[in-house]
C-alpha cells in the first residue's frame, strides 16, 4: 500500500486537526506532541519540525477553533439572531468547544494567554462590527455564548445531552427566551 504524499501545508492542516482532537480530550498539560503525531500517523520529530513546540501547536489549534467561529459569524449576517443561530450550529462541534475551554484554561501560560485573549477579543469586536449593537448587547451575547459553550461541554445541550435536571432547564430556558435567541 502506498501513501499519498501531502504537501507541507496539507500535512500542517492534518496536524492541527489531530492536535485539536488530542488537546480537546486531555488539554494542554495532558497532551504530548507524541499523542498528536500518533493521531496524524507521523513521527513526533516531524511535528516539532513543523510547529517548533507543543505550545505553538496548541496555539495553532486554538487559532483554528476561533477562526471557525469568526467564519461562521461572518457568513451568518448582521444581526444577533443570525450570529446566535450560527453559534448554535457550532455547538455540535464538540472538539471545538473543548478546544476553546482548554485554551481558556491554559491561559496562565503567558504566550498562550496572550493569543487566547487576542482571539477572544477579536470575536467580541467582530460581534459589535457585524451587528452594530451596543457594548451591553455584545457583552450579553458573548456571555451567553460562553454559557452555551460550558453547557455544551457538560452535555447539557446537544444530541448526546444527559437527562435534564431542574437547574439545567432553568439556565437553558432563560437563554432560549432571550431577545438574542438563536431559535427565534
From TrEMBL:
Metal-binding in keyword set: no
Record domain HTH tetR-type: where: 9-69
Classification via PROSITE patterns: HTH_TETR_2
Molecular function per GO: DNA-binding transcription factor activity; transcription cis-regulatory region binding
SUPFAM superfamilies according to UniProt: Homeodomain-like
Residue ranges the UniProt entry marks as DNA-binding: 32-51
Alphabetic keyword roster: DNA-binding, Transcription, Transcription regulation
Protein name in UniProt: TetR family transcriptional regulator
Organism: Actinocrispum wychmicini
Record lineage: Bacteria, Bacillati, Actinomycetota, Actinomycetes, Pseudonocardiales
Amino acid at each position: 500500500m502506498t501513501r499519498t504524499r501531502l504537501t507541507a501545508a496539507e500535512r500542517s492542516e492534518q496536524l492541527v486537526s489531530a492536535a485539536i482532537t488530542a488537546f480537546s480530550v486531555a488539554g494542554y498539560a495532558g497532551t504530548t506532541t507524541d499523542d498528536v503525531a500518533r493521531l496524524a500517523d507521523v513521527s513526533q520529530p516531524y511535528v516539532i519540525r513543523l510547529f517548533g513546540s507543543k505550545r505553538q501547536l496548541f496555539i495553532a489549534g486554538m487559532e483554528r477553533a476561533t477562526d471557525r467561529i469568526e467564519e461562521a459569524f461572518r457568513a451568518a449576517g448582521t444581526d444577533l439572531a443570525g450570529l446566535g443561530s450560527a453559534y448554535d450550529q457550532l455547538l455540535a462541534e464538540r472538539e471545538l468547544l473543548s478546544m476553546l475551554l482548554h485554551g481558556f484554561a491554559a491561559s496562565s501560560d503567558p504566550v498562550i494567554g496572550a493569543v487566547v485573549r487576542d482571539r477572544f477579543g477579536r470575536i467580541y469586536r467582530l460581534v459589535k462590527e457585524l451587528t452594530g449593537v451596543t457594548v451591553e448587547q455584545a457583552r450579553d451575547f458573548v456571555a451567553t455564548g460562553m454559557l452555551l459553550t460550558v453547557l455544551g461541554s457538560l452535555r447539557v445541550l446537544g444530541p448526546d445531552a444527559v437527562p435534564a435536571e431542574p437547574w439545567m432547564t432553568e439556565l437553558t430556558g432563560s437563554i432560549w427566551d432571550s431577545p438574542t435567541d438563536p431559535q427565534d
